Fold:
Amino acid sequence: MLLDLVKKRRSIRKFTDEDISDKEIHEIIEVALHAPTAKNQNPVRYIVVKDRDRIQELSKYKKIGSKFLSGAKIAIAVVTDTDISPVTNHQDASIAATYILLKVAEMNLGATWGNVTDAVNEEGRPSQEVLKEFFKLDDKFNVECVIGIGHPAEEKSEKVPFDYDENVFEDLDVVK
Ligand SMILES: Cc1cc2nc3c(=O)[nH]c(=O)nc-3n(C[C@H](O)[C@H](O)[C@H](O)COP(=O)(O)O)c2cc1C
Structure:
């Protein structure tokens, strides 16, 4: 059931040493490749990082909130070609990234989304710029997020949903 899966999915930032196979990586990305994209244009690209040293380096792409990557077994950067989808690239990438998080949870692996927008590294350099250099990306690309994935070394309780009545409105109600 999808509801069971969304309850199970939590952000996992601590990982064991256990490897993730190429077959597992393929299974994860295969799901993302089914994600909807505006006009079915698919501007989304996936960059898989497996090398330990590269992952260590990647964990410094921003000052706050990317350290968890250092323990991850793989990282997947979700990138878009903004020439293909100048307007909807963020939405397209976000849906694909969400598919990745859900598939990871289904496989009893753990993951966390690393945000890039408006982030800077220790030296104050924009993380977008840092990542474009790291991945040797042409300027037309946008790195939407960097997802760290591994076998969980922390346990989290089931996801508690936001309150229905506080967040759902009937048409013509005043939304608060
Ligand atoms: C758009 C987005 C950006 C996020 N950026 C980061 C991040 O940069 N670093 C991080 O550790 N977690 C990040 N997270 C994870 C959130 O902190 C996490 O989803 C939230 O606290 C709810 O916890 P849960 O995922 O366990 O339900 C991000 C999540 C989303 C959806």
